[in-house]
Amino acid sequence: MMLSTSFQPIVRSVVFRTGSAVQLKGTANELFSAKNYEGASSLYTKIIRDFAERADPEFIRGVQCNRAACMIEMGDFQGAIPDLEEVIRKAPKEANSLKTIGLTQKAHHRLARCLFELGKLTDALKEMDRYRDIPGGGTTEAATTLRNRIIEAIVLRDESRASTRVPSSGNSKVLRYEVKVTVPDQPSVSIVNYDTVALSLCTMHPPEMPTKMFLADLVKKYHESIMQERNWTCWNCRRKAVSLVHTPGSYLHLAEPMVVDFAQPVCVNGGECDKAARKMMDEERRFAAAAMGGMNRR
C-alpha cells in the first residue's frame, strides 16, 4: 500500500505537466490566429524550454514548426530557418501517419518560403522538390503557388544574367534543365536550373538542327556554374576533373518541358578518360535509339 500511495502522485504530476504543454500550445495557437505573433512565439518558446525533454517528440516538432511560422509572419525569415531545419532533421525515417508526413511537408514548404524571401532561389526550389517527393505526401494550392513564384523568379534572374539566351518572341515555355553528374561508387548529384524554350521546339517531332543548337547553347550556358558547384573528380581515374562530358536528353514535348543531362567529370579534355566517357555515352545513345525503334515498330 505504501508503494502505491507514493507512486500515484508521480503519475498525476506527469499527466498534469503534459496537459499544461497541450494547454499552452492551444493558447499559443489562439494568439497566432489573433495575429499576436510575438505572444504566440513566446509561448511556443516556453513549451520547448520546459517540456522538450519529456514531451512526445512529434508534439515538440509541431511546436517548433509553429514558432517558425510566427517568425515568418513577423518577417524574420532567417530566424525561422533553424527551427524548420530541426523539424526536418528530426522527422521519423519511416513516417506512418498523415499527421507526421503533413508536418514534415509543412516544414519544407515554410523553409522554401524563407529561402525564397531571402533570395536563395535555387535552394528554395530544392526544398519544394523535397516537399513534393515525400512518400505519401500531397500538395496544396499554396505550395503550387509558391513553387510557381520561385520558378518565375529564377527565370527572371537568369534572363537578366544571360547574354547567350536563345532568342524568343515571347512564345516560350518554362524549361527544367536537370544535370545529373555521375561518378562510379558515389551518389549521383542532381543540379536543377530553369530556363525557357521556344514553343516551336515543344513538339513530338521538333526540327532537328534548331533543337541541337538549343541543347548545345543550353549546355554551354550552365557548364561553368556546374563546374563550380564542387571539386569534381574524374569518373574514371579519380583525378581532379577539369571539365564535363555532357549527354543531354530532350523531353521538350512534355507538358512541362525538360532536358535531362547525364554528365561525367573528366580529368583532361580530349584525354583517355574523356574519350572513354564519350564512347560509353555513344553506346548508351545507340542502345536507347534501338530500344525506341523497337517500341515504335510494335
Automatic annotation (TrEMBL):
<dbReference type="GO" id="GO:0006620">
    <property type="term" value="P:post-translational protein targeting to endoplasmic reticulum membrane"/>
</dbReference>
<dbReference type="Pfam" id="PF14559">
    <property type="entry name" value="TPR_19"/>
</dbReference>
<keyword id="KW-0802">TPR repeat</keyword>
<dbReference type="GO" id="GO:0016020">
    <property type="term" value="C:membrane"/>
</dbReference>
<dbReference type="InterPro" id="IPR047150">
    <property type="entry name" value="SGT"/>
</dbReference>
<protein>
    <submittedName>
        <fullName>Uncharacterized protein</fullName>
    </submittedName>
</protein>
<keyword id="KW-0677">Repeat</keyword>
<dbReference type="InterPro" id="IPR011990">
    <property type="entry name" value="TPR-like_helical_dom_sf"/>
</dbReference>
<dbReference type="GO" id="GO:0060090">
    <property type="term" value="F:molecular adaptor activity"/>
</dbReference>
<dbReference type="GO" id="GO:0072380">
    <property type="term" value="C:TRC complex"/>
</dbReference>
